[in-house]
Amino acid sequence: MSTNNLFLSISKMEDWLLKNSSVDDISVSTLVKQEPNKKLTAKEVKQDTSILARLLIRAYVGWPVLNVFIKRKVLKQLIDIYNNACDTTSQEFFDSVKSVIGCIPDNHISISFNGVRATTSKRKKYKNVGPNISKNADISFKMLKKNIAVIGFKNMLRTDEFKDTIASFINDTLPNSMALIVDLRQNSGGNSFYSDRFADYLCGTKIDSYRKLYVRATPEAQKIQQQSYPNAFWTGLPESEDFILCREGKNYSIDKSKAYTKPIYLLTDRITGSSAEMFLLRMIHHPCVKVVGDNSAGMETFGNMGSTFLKNSQIKVFIGMNYRVLFKDNFELNGYKPDIKCEEGTDALDVALSNIDKNLLLQQIKIHGDRNK
Asked: How far apart are CA 369 and CA 81, in angstroms?
């Protein structure tokens, strides 16, 4: 196929790229040692290019929703690599396919080789709005003056220590607080199990973070899903060429009789993403919440990463298994815009504390005025 044949339909370009691989080529065995200087023949380069194309076209949950322009750009680059295949090394092949991933507007998707991970080139510039209070820990908390409780999540984990720290904060610190600050800065996610439970506690009930959740059920997608999440909710789904709706969000209202109803401030920046954004997108339904800092990463439309590797080069490939329809359009890469946006070099924690002081002063003035009437 000529790389100039861009008038060809996307489906024909896809079919052409897929011809040199099959579902059986998707690796579920253990990754062997990655060797940068390993020699690849032109035939092996073509096969790995076809396998990568298959993973993107047939397994990646984002492929059906990418626009035509992005699809054509990805397919053209893959066709160029395929057509120009020659004897090379694994490292050189990795360097040639990094740009394929780079043009996909998804903050999760990536490939990695020899300790280097290549991601989208479309990420927004990071702005420093202060460090997370948990500088050297995954989670920590403290009580500040005027009984302002602060808890910082540097990573989201599903460990006993993480669970116990949240429980201690809820039982011993939060009841005595006049306001709450949750620090999500520099938190790129992890496992959301216990942080989601914390959001449920603050809201007094389970709050959903998306409108709808879809998966793919092609043979390729199911093979990766079963490898990555053998007990997940999509186990046993019938094969399908279409998106399958797995879950719908149902509740976006807090239970005021059980919720924490004092002022809540969430601190975010351009690293706040994935599971940290899942927490954020639950909490924005709470009427007492204000978000302070910079836009979050925009790393929540595609998620639940499945992984596999290209069998000749051993390049590891990470692709999203879930597609979420969120409340905010164009969320991926753009993220959630804070209620109070901080300038570069301004500490969002200081801004939140200042805002709390201001509101408490206004409240006292109002109370004093009401008494004098």
From this structure: 73
Question: Tens of pLDDT along 282-297?
Answer: 999 999 999 999 999 9
| Spatial separation of the C-alpha atoms in residues 301 and 335, rounded to whole Å | 10
Residues whose CB is less than 8 angstroms from the CB of residue 47 and which lie 6 or more positions away in sequence, other chains included: 20, 21, 25, 311, 312
Q: Which residues pair with 190 in a beta bridge?
A: 156
Residue 369 sits at φ, ψ, to 5 deg, of -65, -40
The Cα 132–Cα 6 span in angstroms is 48
Q: Distance between CA 102 and CA 121 in Å, rounded?
A: 5
Q: Are 210 and 281 in contact (CB under 8 A)?
A: yes
How crowded is residue 55: how many other Cβ atoms within 10 Å of its Cβ?
25
Q: 60 - beta bridge partners?
A: none
In 154-301 the beta strands, taken as DSSP E runs, fall at 179-183, 212-217, 240-248, 264-268, 289-293
Could you tell me which residues come within 8 angstroms of residue 177 by beta carbon, excluding any fewer than 6 positions away? 143, 147, 148, 149, 262
Rounded to an integer, the average pLDDT of 320-325 is 95
User: And the tokens for 258?
Assistant: 């059980």
Which stretch of DSSP H or E encloses residue 32? Answer: none
The mean-pLDDT minimum among 1-15, 82-96, 153-167 falls in 1-15
pTM of the predicted protein model: 0.92
Q: How far apart are the first and last CA of the chain?
A: 84
Helix 160-168, helix 193-203: angle, nearest 10: 20
